[in-house]
Amino acid sequence: MAEFEVRAVAAEEVRALRRALLRPHQEVEELVYAGDDHPETLHLGGFRHGRMVGIATIMFRPMPGRAERAAWQVRGMAVDHGHRGYGLGGLLLRRCLAHAAAGGGRLAWCNARAGSFGFYERHGFRRDGEPFELPDIGPHYRMFLQLEPAPPAGRPSGEE
Questions:
Q1: Which of 44, 51, 52, 57 has the fewest CB atoms nearer than 10 Å to its CB?
Q2: Which tens digits make up the pLDDT trace of 88-116?
Q3: How much is the pTM?
Q4: Would you state the CATH architecture of domain 5-146?
Q5: Strand, helix or coil at 56?
Q6: Helical (H) or strand (E) element with 14
Q7: Residues 6 or more apart from 45 whose CB is under 8 A from it?
Q8: How far is C-alpha 132 from the chain's CA centre?
Q9: How far apart, in whole angstroms, are the C-alpha atoms of residue 24 and residue 45?
Q10: What CA–CA distance (Å, rounded) separates 19 from 28?
């Protein structure tokens, strides 16, 4: 099994893979998301043998159509084709969700490509509504997951 390291990276470091894996029709400069530079936003890189092969971003952002204010959006998540199926995507997603919960998040959501919604369902996300089209990208589903509150600092999860 492949061994991966997941660590926080700067926003600039994820943009080349955002382009290569998610939006090859756009220039790197176009892949700056609103909120990328917010201090609470987390960008993660997944590394194998020192090379970044996966990315994910999570940011505080309300989910359209939902009243929950403590919502966080997972964005720009991708794993290089040759490294899929080894658990890196799950590692990235779990770290994003833990970050959101630690920041008081009660809901995580994403716009999942039609071909990847099964990944999010396996991690507990549910589809919200009908598929929709993002221009030049393709069909997507809005998906969400209720988050468990983060355990108090200094106390392991599951301990009373």
A1: 51
A2: 999 999 999 999 999 999 999 999 988 88
A3: 0.88
A4: 3-Layer(aba) Sandwich (3.40)
A5: strand
A6: helix 11-17
A7: 6, 7, 8, 9, 13, 14, 52, 54, 55
A8: 19
A9: 19
A10: 6
